[in-house]
Structures are given as structure tokens and as C-alpha cells.
Amino acid sequence: MRYIRGYMIRFSIVFSIVFLVIITGCGEINSDTQKKVLVSALPLIDSPDAREIPIKNTIIWHWENRFEKQEVHKIKQWLSVIDVAIIDTYGKYPFDMHFYIHRSKSGNEPVPWAHTTRGKDQGVHFHVNTTYSITEFLTDWTAQHEISHLSIPFVGKENTWFSEGYATYMQCQVMQVQGVLTSDDVKYKYATKLANCKQAYQSDLTVPQAADSLKKAWNYPALYWGGASFFWKLNAQYSSEIQKTLPRVIAEYVKCCRIGHRSPEEICETLDQITETKIASKLLNDYKTEPARLMFEEF
Ligand SMILES: [Zn+2]
Question: Distance, CA 163 to ligand 1 centroid (Å)?
């Protein structure tokens, strides 16, 4: 789930968040509901020349409101570009992605609201304001965040810190691959965002416990970036100890093991198997047992 910049300026958006939090406790919806499929597009292969075959995820489009032809073109253009960056980051997902497109007339950005749907189908609901330009859609972070969620399984509403931290960390990686953020931009963003939420974790509670309190207090930026600290540390340890980045390890995870796991513990055990280390499980255990303030000492 993306959180709303500007502290949720409109009642309708606030109502939507309240509704989703009540239902799920986090932004990921676990649903088997499949709505009408109006357009199925973006085949995997569209070139006879194998050297030039663009790999694409299989996207099932659901148009939840009436959109003009130009609007459909803009939305497809936007999400197709993001999909290229997703593929370059994670490899091809081993499932179809369902994109539900809703019209939004509120909000001061291209995608005022979005959330995933998990269960039998893996997908994202995008609420879009098509008055924004294609450039503005491409530089927004919502799609990179939501589609990143799908690269790991739904881990339950009790683990929001883990799932939102993961998507928050990885959205920057996807945006760097896409070319809308530089390596320096990403480093600066991590440094400033993690420093900004350090105060919220000056606690003897563990990070998951502190994050739960932040969620109840609607402090979504601190909740999301607190969780992102876990993945920042994981990437740092992989880089120094096995000379691999977290995105590279995750790409291996998506290829071999994406289907089936359900908990942060299981995901971390699998990452450990892939890396032939105990790094992820050890770090997760630290986050579950150590005071949050110790986890934030370096930020
Ligand atoms: Zn999210």
C-alpha cells in the first residue's frame, strides 16, 4: 500500500485508508475475488527474432471505470515502462499480474491511491488521475512500490513492517533501474528517510512492536521506512559479505522460490539457502528481539 503524501488531505482518501486498515491492517488485500476481465494484453513474446524478444510480465487488465482511448493508451504506456524496470530488477514473475484501473478525481498526484490484492490472483488496484501527464506518471513511485510487493508472498497483516519496508526499499531500486533516480539519489533518499524516522524508534520495544504502535498512530512514513531499515541492512551485509546486492538475491528468490512461502521467517530462511549464509535469519531475529533503538544506531 502506498501512503498519502500531504497527510491525507481529503476525507474520501482518509475514509478509504480507514476502510482498508480495518479490513486488512495493512495495504495488502488478500482476496480471491476476480472481477471482469475486459482486456487481456501484453503477450510474452511479440518478436520472431529471439535476440530481440522483450520479456514481459503477463498483465491482465481490468478497467473498473470507463476510460477514453487516449487514457487507456497513457495508462498502458506508463505501466508497460514500469514493467520493463520490474523485469530488469526481479526477472519475470511466475504468475499473471492483474491490474485494476479505477478513475480518481481527487488527490494532487497521478496515483492518489493504490493497493495490492493477494490470494488466488496477484494484482494491484490503481486509482489514477489521468489529467496528469505520462511524464508525471512515470516519475511517480506508486507502481514501482505496489508491483514490488508482488515479488514476495503476502506475509499477513501482523507483518506490515516487513512487507511495507520491503516494498519501500525496493521501489527505489526499481526507480533507479527505470532511470528516474540515480544511484546518488537513492543513497540520499535512504539516508535522509532512515534518519528522519530514527526518532520514532528510540524505544525498548522491538522494531515490529514499535512499528505496530506507529501504524495505530497513523505514522505511515515512519512505519514504512522503519521496515525499510531491515532491507537496507540486509543489502549492506550481502554487499560486504558475499559481494551481492539484495536485488540480485531477490531475483534468484523470485526465480526459484516465490510461490509458497507465507512468513518473514520462511522468506529469510529461503534467502539464507540461496546465499548459503545465515544473514537474513540472524538479522530478522535481531529485529524481533533487540530494542528498536539499537537497530537504528547507525542511521
Ligand atoms: Zn505498500
Answer: 7
Å from CA of 203 to ligand 1 middle:
24
Contacts with 131 (C-beta within 8 Å, 6 or more apart), sequence order: none
Residues 6+ apart with CB under 8 A from 207: 161, 201, 226, 227, 229, 230, 287, 288, 292, 295
Q: Please tell me the distance from the alpha carbon of residue 284 to that of residue 38, in angstroms, as a whole number.
A: 42
Q: What angle do CA 237, 179, 194 make, to 5 degrees?
A: 40
Centre of ligand 1 to C-alpha 89, Å, is: 17
The residues near 279 (Cβ < 8 Å, ≥ 6 apart) are: 234, 237, 238, 241, 242, 271, 272
What's the whole-model pTM score? Answer: 0.84
Query: Ligand 1: distance of its center to the CA of 275 in Å?
Result: 26
CA 220 vs CA 3, 68, 202: distances in Å: 6, 34, 17
Write the pLDDT tens digit of every residue in 221-277: 999 999 999 999 999 999 999 999 999 999 999 999 998 768 999 999 999 999 999
How far is the centre of ligand 1, averaged over its atoms, from the C-alpha of 170 (Å)? Answer: 11
C-alpha cell at 111: 496515483
Decide: 28 and 137 in contact? Cβ < 8 Å. Answer: no
* Non-local CB neighbours of 192 within 8 Å, separated by 6+ positions: none
What are the pLDDT digits (tens) for 28-64?
A: 544 433 333 333 333 344 444 545 567 899 999 999 9
Contact, 101 vs 107, CB < 8 A? no
